[in-house]
């Protein structure tokens, strides 16, 4: 009938229009939010320093969260110290039995063997606790591998978040009160056995075998053993330096996000820290799709080391191969690329102590075995790979880093933030 208005239909149409507008607004908001999510992936082989860089980012953008986590790092520090003691005892056991075959002139005192076995006997309770501590820390997930055993922190990672601390918080809340029991035992044992640990660490046999490179410890072992009396204090709380020195293998991909302010705008900076050993690398690819930036870490001190998962592969060669694969990956064509040639402090120490690069990297030839030459040699190699395999218009930002040097690393983080966000903004404008 003309002139009659179907109010129900009008209401339905009006609601449909409102819904459309709301949907469009939500979509736009979502798109805008996505555009402000800067996704940064940390890539590189195992032990290249990815998790250490993640901690440095956390220190820079969210230091109160690191403060809250301090108690949770205590058992991990104990674990690192105990693991170092166990490795020394394992290696010395082996070397004393074969020491008669030593080809060089190094003096081996026949009484060392007895002295070491006396210390070993005293330290036995500490050694027997190592596996249980590893298991407690990783929520029961323990992956053994390589010479010294590799322990992952899968369970541990998921419970230590910026808002929650374990084991302290859990024990206080009475949740799973068995957690932390082994850590408490480890703490007591460290108090009781600290002088025996120090005696072992100072023993001429250990110093001799370290010098001869017949005993190889994890890079942070010396730091924790030097500090054993401080770690053994009953109210010990890890310092930032302790947390940065901790070695704990990452399993899978872990996500960390920070809110950052740049040029008056807020961005959510999402860091993806990945496990770097060969068996873990397949897990990276699903994250490549929308990665705003890649920070690739290559430890250039590792020219005389081999992969734990494949002892025939030189670590520098592995880094170069991995960097080639990263630069050639089509999914990463639009990502910013930062290369960190890391562990320069260890590289300097190694070269000063006379370790020759050409012995391990034959193409190094007769170049001088000095830091400047070696660092430049590696820089050029990585740069050439990027030129050959990378995207032409993609800039490569290269930094020499020593990730435990907080002041220097924090400066580099400022530079990286700026470079990544500028590229990110440029690309957001292109797609909007
Ligand atoms: N001296 C020195 N040690 C470093 C440096 N960067 C990292 N480390 C140490 O190297 C060890 C390994 O570092 P991580 O950050 O755990 O290595 P990652 O790349 O995360 O290793 P995965 O998780 O196994 O892939 C830790 O004990 C760090 O403290 C550095 O520049 N200099
Ligand atoms: Mg890691």
UniProtKB/TrEMBL annotation:
GO cellular component: a single term: heterotrimeric G-protein complex
Origin superkingdom: Eukaryota
Species in which this protein is naturally found: Russula ochroleuca
Pfam hit, one: G-alpha
InterPro entries attached to this UniProt entry: Gprotein_alpha_su, GproteinA_insert, P-loop_NTPase
Key word Glycoprotein present: no
Signal peptide: none
Binding, GTP: 47-52, 244-250, 342-345
Descriptive protein name: G-protein alpha subunit
Residues noted as binding Mg(2+) in the record, renumbered to the chain: 51, 250
Record bears the keyword Signal: no
Keywords: GTP-binding, Magnesium, Metal-binding, Nucleotide-binding, Transducer
GO biological process, one term: adenylate cyclase-modulating G protein-coupled receptor signaling pathway
GO molecular function: G protein-coupled receptor binding; G-protein beta/gamma-subunit complex binding; GTP binding; GTPase activity; metal ion binding
């Amino acid at each position: 009938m003309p002139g009659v208005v179907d109010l129900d239909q009008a209401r339905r149409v009006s609601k449909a229009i409102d819904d459309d507008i709301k949907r469009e607004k939500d979509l736009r908001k979502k798109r805008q939010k996505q555009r402000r999510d800067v996704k940064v992936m940390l890539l590189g082989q195992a032990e290249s320093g990815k998790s250490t860089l993640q901690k440095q980012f956390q220190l820079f953008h969210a230091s109160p969260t690191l403060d809250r986590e301090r108690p949770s790092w205590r058992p991990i520090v104990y674990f690192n110290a105990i693991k170092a003691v166990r490795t020394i005892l394992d290696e010395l056991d082996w070397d004393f039995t074969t020491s008669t075959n030593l080809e060089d002139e190094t003096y081996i005192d026949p009484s060392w063997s007895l002295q070491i076995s006396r210390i070993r006997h005293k330290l036995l309770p500490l050694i027997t606790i190592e596996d249980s501590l590893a298991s407690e820390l990783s929520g029961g997930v323990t992956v053994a591998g390589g010479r010294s055993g590799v322990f992952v922190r899968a369970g541990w990672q998921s419970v230590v978040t910026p808002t929650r601390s374990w084991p302290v918080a859990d024990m206080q809340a009475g949740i799973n009160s068995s957690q932390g029991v082994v850590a408490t035992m480890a703490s007591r044992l460290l108090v009781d056995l600290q002088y025996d640990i120090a005696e072992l660490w100072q023993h001429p046999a250990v110093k001799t075998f370290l010098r001869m490179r017949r005993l190889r410890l994890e890079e942070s072992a010396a730091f924790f053993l030097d500090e054993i009396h401080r770690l053994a204090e009953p109210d010990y709380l890890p310092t930032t330096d302790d947390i940065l020195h901790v070695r704990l293998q990452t399993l899978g991909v872990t996500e960390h996000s920070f809110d950052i302010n740049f040029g008056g705008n807020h961005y959510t900076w999402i860091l993806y820290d990945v496990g770097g050993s060969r068996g873990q690398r397949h897990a990276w690819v699903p994250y490549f799709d929308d990665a705003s930036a890649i920070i690739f870490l290559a430890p250039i001190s590792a020219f005389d080391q081999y992969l734990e998962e494949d002892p025939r592969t030189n670590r520098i060669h592995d880094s170069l191969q991995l960097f080639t694969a990263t630069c050639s990956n089509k999914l990463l064509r639009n990502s910013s690329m930062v290369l960190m040639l890391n562990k320069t402090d260890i590289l300097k120490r190694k070269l000063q102590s006379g370790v020759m690069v050409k012995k391990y990297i034959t193409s190094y030839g007769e170049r001088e075995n000095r830091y400047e030459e070696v660092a430049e040699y590696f820089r050029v190699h990585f740069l050439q790979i990027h030129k050959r395999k990378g995207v032409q218009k993609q800039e490569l930002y290269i930094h020499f880093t020593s990730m435990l040097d907080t002041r220097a690393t924090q400066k580099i983080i400022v530079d990286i933030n700026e470079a990544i966000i500028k590229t990110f903004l440029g690309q957001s404008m292109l797609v909007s």
